[in-house]
Structure formats: structure tokens, C-alpha cells
Design goal:
CATH architecture of the largest domain: 3-Layer(aba) Sandwich
Strand order of the largest sheet: 2-8-7-6-5-3-4
Strand content: 5-15%
Largest sheet: 7 strands, mixed
Radius of gyration: 22 Å
Number of strands: 16
Distance between the termini: 17 Å
CATH topology of the largest domain: Aspartate Aminotransferase, domain 2
Shape: globular
Order of helices and strands: EHHEHEHEHEHEEEHEHEEEHEEHHEHHEH
Oligomer: single chain
Helix content: 25-40%
């Protein structure tokens, strides 16, 4: 193989490069018009009223927790099958993250388990469902569970830009949540280099998020509290601003947003190719022993950020580590998504039990993410599958 094949890779073409160059030559580099343009484009695409772009997906989760007034003493329930940021964002506001087991077929939160977990925990302040691999969770049912618990819902859709719910609406429209969070890290479906965005339909949350991403400062987009200092002869003082609450510097740049606007135009073809590759993997692994798709349903609705398989490593007599090393020797860079969050040392030290979620533990023992990205050719995909079949003893 002439190049290494990672599990994910960004795609940037001349149009993207030119969009960034135009900003560098002629535009604002930060806090300029490209940010609002990008926010409006994302809001229009997903069908939400508002969008607030920030420096990365973790920042988006953190700000969503602050904006939702989640804090000390509150319980936030999320999936153990996710990156640590889904839980650590709750820790950053002083809340306590808890976990609920996953469904074996979708690898998303099991709604029956979630309902039972909320009852077990008592008062739950927020639920953070994770659309793993780009496949949307059962959001109508999660909304019902949240309403019964009087909890807010913040969707972690870092994998799911372009995915659709069962009713055809797009993830991010916030029909079932207070806020939805996306990531534009380079391995995601589209990229701004680093970057994230929060969508919402609630104006109060929107205005709070705008302040929070920039030091808690208002510059006239909200009423000033010290009107005697803010105005002269009835006119706003041009230099004036107010820090009205504690915020952070989670701003995104115009450079990043220019790239994002250009990438968003390509999103339909990115999604189409990823779905095509996922279906081809499904077909090529049919009747191959000891391997099966990790998410065998929902291909028509998923954004296909990941292609995960489950391999019976015990049956093939080879450890996952040895299997991955053999793939790497053939220039195939696989990955595991995810180490169960509750098993990390920090969470173990803070009372989380390793064997608490049996479905997650069983999945983790077999999980492997294979190369899936827009620029992956059919020939390269056949090479990946052929090498895997050889290692499974089916080549």
C-alpha cells in the first residue's frame, strides 16, 4: 500500500485553501463576519434557530453545561461509549457524571436502561446522549425520560453532522433537546481544523452562549447593567463593554469559519461516500467468520463517522493488540472506540465500578474501528478487507 490508511482523515481541496487565503489576505482574522456566516449556515442546514461556534467540541460541551446552569451537586448521565469529554464537561462545572449502559445493536444509550438508571440515581439534572459513530440515538424516547426526570438534554453529536432522526429531521434541529453540540476536528465528517458549534432554539441560551464564549462580556447585544457608564447623551459609548458573568475565551476564528463554510458545501458528497463505503464493508464481511458490523442498522440515517466491527479475538486465537499491530505492518491504522469512560483511573478513583455496564464491557472487548473517510478508494477498501480476512484465517 502506497500510503497509510488511518481510521479517519480530513479532505481539503483547492476551494477550501482559497477560502482560507481570502480571509488571510482581505478579511478579519477573528471576531469578524465569517463567524456569523458560518453559524447561520450550520443553523440553516440542521434546522435550528441559533448556532454559536466555538474553539472545539469540548469547549462546546463545557459551555452548554454552563448555559444550562448545571453545577455543583447536579447529576449528569451520559454513555460510557464515548470520548472522555462527554463526562469531563460535567466535571468542569462541578457536577457529577454518571453512566448508563448501551444497546448491543446501536451502541448508543439503551433507553430502557436509561430510564431505570434515572430512577436509581434519583434527581438527574441533565442527560447527554451520544450519537455514537454518527447513528442517532432514540431521541423521542430519551426526551420522554428526561421530561419525567425534569432533566435538560444536551446532545453530543460530535460524530453526527448530517445524520437524521427517524422522522427525517436533522440531528442538531433541537426538536428533542435544549442544545446539540458538534465537533469539527480533522477526523470528523467536515473540519474547521479544530472547532465546534452549539445549536439551540432557545434565545436565552443563545445569548448566554455568546457571552460565555468571550469572557462573559456583552458589547451591546444584551442590555447594559450600568447605563450611567454605558451611555453619553443617550448614545452608547463606542468603547464600552461589560463583563456581566464569568466566561471563557472559547472563540473560534474567521480563518477556521472560512474553511468550515467551504467544507459545508461538500458535506452532501462527504456523507454519500461514507454511506457507500459503510455498505460496501457490510457486503464484504457477510458470511466471514468471527467478524460482524458493530452497528448493523440505521445506514440510511447515520452520518457514518466511524465504521466499527466486532471481532471474536478469542476465537481467532490472536489478541486485539497483535491484530492491530499486524494491520499496522500493512499500513492499516485501526483504532478502538472507546475505552469505557467509567474504567479510566480518574473515574475508578471516584467510585465508578469497572463491571457496572455489561453490554459496554462486552462490546469493548471486541471493538475495532476500520478506515472510513471520504478519500478512501474502493481499491484501498478492498485491500483493508483482504488483509483482515487473511488475519481471520479466511483469506
Amino acid at each position: 500500500m502506497s500510503r497509510a490508511l488511518p481510521y479517519g482523515r480530513h479532505y481539503v481541496d483547492d476551494d477550501d485553501i482559497q477560502a482560507v487565503v481570502e480571509v488571510l489576505r482581505h478579511g478579519w482574522l477573528t471576531q469578524g463576519p465569517k463567524i456569523a456566516e458560518f453559524e447561520q449556515a450550520i443553523a440553516d442546514y440542521v434546522g435550528a434557530k441559533y448556532a454559536v461556534a466555538v474553539s472545539n467540541g469540548t469547549a462546546a460541551l463545557h459551555l452548554a453545561c454552563i448555559a444550562a446552569d448545571i453545577g455543583k451537586g447536579d447529576v449528569v448521565v451520559t454513555s460510557p461509549n464515548t470520548f472522555v469529554a462527554s463526562a469531563s464537561s460535567a466535571l468542569c462545572v462541578g457536577a457529577t457524571p454518571q453512566f448508563s449502559d448501551i444497546d448491543a445493536e446501536t451502541l448508543n444509550m439503551d433507553t430502557a436502561a436509561l430510564a431505570a438508571r434515572c430512577t436509581e440515581l434519583g434527581r438527574v439534572r441533565a442527560i447527554v446522549p451520544v450519537h455514537f459513530g454518527g447513528l442517532p440515538c432514540d431521541m423521542p424516547e430519551i426526551r420522554k425520560i428526561a421530561d419525567a426526570a425534569q432533566a435538560v438534554v444536551i446532545e453530543d453529536a460530535a460524530h453526527a453532522l448530517g445524520a437524521t432522526y427517524a422522522d427525517g429531521s436533522r440531528v442538531g434541529c433541537c426538536a428533542y433537546s435544549e442544545m446539540t453540540v458538534f465537533s469539527f476536528h480533522p477526523v470528523k465528517i467536515m473540519t474547521t481544523g479544530e472547532g465546534g458549534i452549539i445549536t439551540t432554539n432557545e434565545e436565552k441560551l443563545y445569548r448566554g452562549l455568546l457571552r460565555l464564549r468571550s469572557h462573559g462580556i456583552t458589547k451591546g447585544n444584551d442590555p447594559y447593567l450600568h447605563r450611567d457608564l454605558a451611555y453619553t447623551d443617550g448614545e452608547p459609548n463606542m468603547w464600552y463593554y461589560e463583563m456581566q458573568e464569568v466566561g471563557l475565551n472559547y472563540r473560534i476564528t474567521d480563518i477556521q469559519c472560512a474553511l468550515g463554510i467551504s467544507q459545508l458545501r461538500k458535506l452532501p458528497r462527504f456523507l454519500e461516500r461514507r454511506r457507500e463505503l459503510a455498505l460496501q464493508y457490510d457486503r464484504m464481511f457477510v458470511e466471514v467468520r468471527h467478524i460482524r458490523p458493530g452497528q448493523p442498522t440505521g445506514r440510511e440515517r447515520s452520518a457514518h463517522h466511524l465504521y466499527v466491527v466486532r471481532i471474536d479475538f478469542d476465537a481467532i486465537g490472536r489478541s486485539r493488540n497483535a491484530f492491530m499491530r499486524a494491520l499496522k505492518e500493512s499500513s492499516i491504522l485501526s483504532q478502538v472506540h472507546y475505552i469505557p469512560v467509567h474504567t479510566h483511573p480518574f473515574f475508578r478513583r471516584n467510585g465508578h465500578e469497572r463491571d457496572r455496564f455489561p453490554v459496554m464491557e462486552d462490546y469493548y472487548g471486541q471493538a475495532l474501528s476500520l478506515p472510513l473517510f471520504y478519500g478512501l478508494s474502493d481499491q484501498e477498501q478492498r485491500y483493508v478487507v483482504g488483509r483482515i480476512k487473511e488475519l481471520l484465517g479466511c483469506g
